[in-house]
Amino acid sequence: MRTAAVIGGGIGGLSAAIGLRRAGWEVAVFERAPRFAEVGAGITLWPNALRALETLGLDLAPLAVPQVSGRLRDHHGRLLTEVDGARFERALGKPLLGIARAQLLDLLRDAIPAADLRAGTTITAVTGDGRVRWDGGELTADLVVAADGVHSAVRSALWPGHPGPAHTGHTAFRAILDDPGPLELSGLLGPGTEVGMLPLTGGRLYWYLACESSPDVRHADPKAFLRRHFGDWPEPLPSLIEATPDERFLQNDLLALRTPLPTYVRERVALLGDAAHAMSPYLGQGGCQAIEDAVVLAAATVRHTSIADALRAYDRERRPRSQAIARRSDQAGRLGAQLKNPLAVAARNAVLRLMPARLSVRASTAAARWTPPGPLTAV
C-alpha cells in the first residue's frame, strides 16, 4: 500500500488525509499542536466546498446553517445590497452554509482512525524524496502533503527563494457568541473596514471585523479598542462588541501569498491550502480552496499510478484556479474593505445600490462554480 505523510491537521490537511484514505493510501497526519482543534471562529462553506466534502463522504447537514438571506449596509446603516438565498441556491444548486471551524474539524477528524493522527509532533525536516523527520522519529513516504499553513516550514525549506506571506494591511477580530438573539447573515462596509455576521447552529453567531492595521499590532483590551473606533456604527455591531466576553476575542493579521508560486509540487511533496495559496479573505474562499485541493490531489492519485504524473496533474489543475481566485479576492478587497478615499467609497456604494440582483449573484458566486473531478475510488 502506498504511504502518505500529511503535515498539518487543519481543514486542508484532514481533508487530504480523508481523500487519500478513500483512494487506498495509508496516511499519517502530523500536527504540531497538542490536539486537533480550533476554537473561536466560523467559516462560510460555499457550494464548491460542499461538493468537495460530499466527494469525501461527509454530511454537514446536522452541523451547518443554510444562509437564507442577507443584507450589506454601509457604516451609516444605509442598505447597499441584499442577498436572496433562493436566487443564490438556484444559481449554484446548493446553499451557502455557516459552520463553526471547531465543528468542521471534529467532523473531519472523526473520519480518520485515531491511530493515524499524531498530535503534538513538530516536524523538523522534510526532503523532496519523501523523508519526514521529527524529534524521536523519521519515516519515508511515497507522498508528502504539506498543509502546514501560511507560514509553511515545508514551503520555506523546499521553495527557499519564495518571499513568503505578505501583510494585507488589515487585521481581523473574530468571536463566536452563544446566544446573541435572532440575527441573519449580514455585513457592514465602511472606509477601510468590513464587518460580517454568520449564524451558526445552536443559536450561536460568528462575527468578525477586519480593519486597517500595521503588522503585529495587538491590543491589550480588544473590546475597548473596538468600542472606541466602532461604537457609533449601526446596530447590531455595538451590541456585539459589548456582548462578547473578553476571552472570546481572537485577533489575527490578514496575510496572503502575494507572490504566486511557480509550482505547488517538488519531487514527492505537494503544497496544499494556505501553504500553497494563502489568500485574503474577501471572497470567503480560503478554506474552500483547501478542501478542493484535497479532493483534486486524491483524485489525481487514482487516475495516475505514477506519483510524479499524479502531482503534475494536481499542479496543473489546482494552481491556475486557486491563484486566479486569490487575485480576485485581492481585487474584491481593494474595492471593498480596503477602500478608504471618500469619493471612491461613495462611488462604490452607488454601484452596489444600483446593481441588479442577478448581476450581484453572478459576481459573488463566480468562484464557487466548480465540480469535483470524480469519485475517489481506490485502484
From TrEMBL:
Entry superkingdom: Bacteria
InterPro entries (alphabetical): FAD-bd, FAD-dep_Monooxygenase_BioMet, FAD/NAD-bd_sf
Keywords: Monooxygenase, Oxidoreductase
Domain FAD-binding, chain residue ranges per copy: 4-329
PANTHER family: MONOOXYGENASE, PUTATIVE (AFU_ORTHOLOGUE AFUA_6G14510)-RELATED
Protein name per the record: 2-polyprenyl-6-methoxyphenol hydroxylase-like FAD-dependent oxidoreductase
